[in-house]
Amino acid sequence: MKSRIVVLICWLVTSVSAVASGIPAHEFFLKNGMKVIIKEDHRAPTVAHMVWYRTGAIDEVNGTTGVAHVLEHMMFKGTKTLKPGEFSARVAALGGRENAFTSKDYTAYFQQIEKSRLPKVMALEADRMANLLLDKKEFEKEIKVVMEERRLRTDDQPIPLVYEALNAVAFTAHPYRHPIVGWMDDLQNMTVEDARAWYERWYAPNNAVLVVVGDVNPKETLALAEKYYGHIPRKAVGNTRPQVEPTQRGIRRVTVKAPAENPYVSLAFKAPALRDVEKDEEVYALDVLSAVLDGYDNARLNAKLVRTDRVANSAGASYSPIGRGPALFILDGVPASGVTTEQLEKRLRDEVERIAQHGVDEGELKRVKTQLIAEQIYKRDSTFGQAMEIGMMELSGLSHRDIDRIIDKLRAVTAEQVQAVAQKYFSNDNLTVATLYPLPLEEKKATPMASLRH
């Protein structure tokens, strides 16, 4: 199940000022084009330091899918001054923790550190922005690690296999159809030159956002940014073509066969993404609709399908409107014993139709919005959470300054708006259905067969 924690990671967020000290974030640009966002939070003597690159799986092309993620791995494999693995060892020696992640829309690197160690991690991060070494032998070892990661997290996991197939069918032209980790054949044929070309094309200060949140002074932190990042020359960063998804003209289905304990079904409806915070009113109503269905323990899907009617072992709804590409509204569930996936598919759609026909009452709407906002306030009560929030907004084409306004818009959603989007976006013409057909768990794992019907 996709949880609200995952889906709303940068959505329904409370403002940084409400979470922490009430001081707004400071925004600067270095002369080389690097954007710098600094947020003070003096509750603890720690700092979250993040560098976000505006490149991810969305920028990849057929034949080299997964290269953004592969380069993320290679960023830890040495520079002109550091040996492979030395970056992580130095951060650990400073008492900090660090990691990185690649998404469809961006790639980010972070360290959490005691505040006096900030200059040292800035120096380390700036070094690999400018001086990464891509050694063929190190690449050949690391590409095997990535392939094994794909086997463990996708090929041997039934639900990730379903979502991989779902995206591949829901999107016919847009690169969101590709998995972030890449298709296995592309990984098997990837070379160190592919990774080097990606680094040279996208890893530049003018294609990056530096986010620093914690017990810092903005002027002093900006001076550090200028010292460590300001000398790195800007590049002529390429643009990714839009690859607009064609209009869907009917229901699409995919069946995945894989060893699993239970069947599973996921319904993905094309829905609008957030592009204009002021004008895209339907986005806010769709997010509230998702919360009405699956925003808390006693939300409609769990209360009706799991607890009362017992037609599902689990049932959920999710919607993630913030991103560089198109959005999906997803309903999913595991049918109870004796219930088919077709029957559960109908029951999931019935719950949306019930809202389309009868709406939601004001009491339920108020509970849902209060719950969601309170949940986000709790989850963002950390320097790292605030840095994540700022970075994801910025790298998705929005601004961290939009956060307060988004909350205002969500608070203003009416019952009539929720009913209207339930009526508008859940037709067959917008729908892709992915179904897991469980094979015996003891069966030897082989490459799953997926039959695609458009």
TrEMBL record:
<dbReference type="GO" id="GO:0046872">
    <property type="term" value="F:metal ion binding"/>
</dbReference>
<dbReference type="GO" id="GO:0006508">
    <property type="term" value="P:proteolysis"/>
</dbReference>
<feature type="domain" description="Peptidase M16 N-terminal">
    <location>
        <begin position="35"/>
        <end position="181"/>
    </location>
</feature>
<dbReference type="GO" id="GO:0004222">
    <property type="term" value="F:metalloendopeptidase activity"/>
</dbReference>
<keyword id="KW-0378">Hydrolase</keyword>
<comment type="similarity">
    <text>Belongs to the peptidase M16 family.</text>
</comment>
<dbReference type="InterPro" id="IPR001431">
    <property type="entry name" value="Pept_M16_Zn_BS"/>
</dbReference>
<keyword id="KW-0732">Signal</keyword>
<dbReference type="InterPro" id="IPR050361">
    <property type="entry name" value="MPP/UQCRC_Complex"/>
</dbReference>
<dbReference type="Pfam" id="PF05193">
    <property type="entry name" value="Peptidase_M16_C"/>
</dbReference>
<keyword id="KW-0645">Protease</keyword>
<feature type="signal peptide">
    <location>
        <begin position="1"/>
        <end position="20"/>
    </location>
</feature>
<dbReference type="InterPro" id="IPR011249">
    <property type="entry name" value="Metalloenz_LuxS/M16"/>
</dbReference>
<dbReference type="InterPro" id="IPR007863">
    <property type="entry name" value="Peptidase_M16_C"/>
</dbReference>
<feature type="domain" description="Peptidase M16 C-terminal">
    <location>
        <begin position="189"/>
        <end position="372"/>
    </location>
</feature>
<dbReference type="Pfam" id="PF00675">
    <property type="entry name" value="Peptidase_M16"/>
</dbReference>
<protein>
    <submittedName>
        <fullName>Zinc protease</fullName>
    </submittedName>
</protein>
<dbReference type="InterPro" id="IPR011765">
    <property type="entry name" value="Pept_M16_N"/>
</dbReference>
